[in-house]
Amino acid sequence: ETGVTQTPRHLVMGMTNKKSLKCEQHLGHNAMYWYKQSAKKPLELMFVYNFKEQTENNSVPSRFSPECPNSSHLFLHLHTLQPEDSALYLCASSQDLGSLSNQPQHFGDGTRLSIL
Amino acid sequence: GESVGLHLPTLSVQEGDNSIINCAYSNSASDYFIWYKQESGKGPQFIIDIRSNMDKRQGQRVTVLLNKTVKHLSLQIAATQPGDSAVYFCAEKVNSGYSTLTFGKGTMLLVSP
Asked: Tell me: the pLDDT tens digits for B1-10?
């Protein structure tokens, strides 16, 4: 149990579907992250929220839309995805951002997304 | 941009051996480093971290060594066990603003009984 819970664990969707990934953390952290993990590639940072404010959008296509209603919850809304978007999507949290905040990120177990 | 990389994609060891996983980084401004372990079907799990004002840090059966001169980071696992089989990757963070972690590709550690 990492304190970061992601649902669903697996998702299969067609290219025209709309779905959402959910992440919840019980660690009292203020920063939350979405990553994409594809085979044989390093983790790719997608979005970062710090105290509910988005601080980074790492050139992610608009078919991915994040939402952070509070510091404990993070969503990733998916719409009109492409086959190359099939990957493991990981959520993480950390105490907060900032140059003096050298704290590890804690990850959930991810959502395995398959686009048909 | 600068990146974090790993020397070996796969490391095979016998149970009971000591394992050493290496990581090279190129950004001299990085001041915080983390090792993660990722088992099949799970997310990355924090193992140990080290700040740039240290060159060695020990945990339970694990030791991280940092050589800032050659920009090299290593993870040593003592008495490797089958349960240590996983992908290990390092991450670095630059000390500036709202910087975030940059991850390496990972090394697969295979432990034979």
From this structure: 334 554 448 9
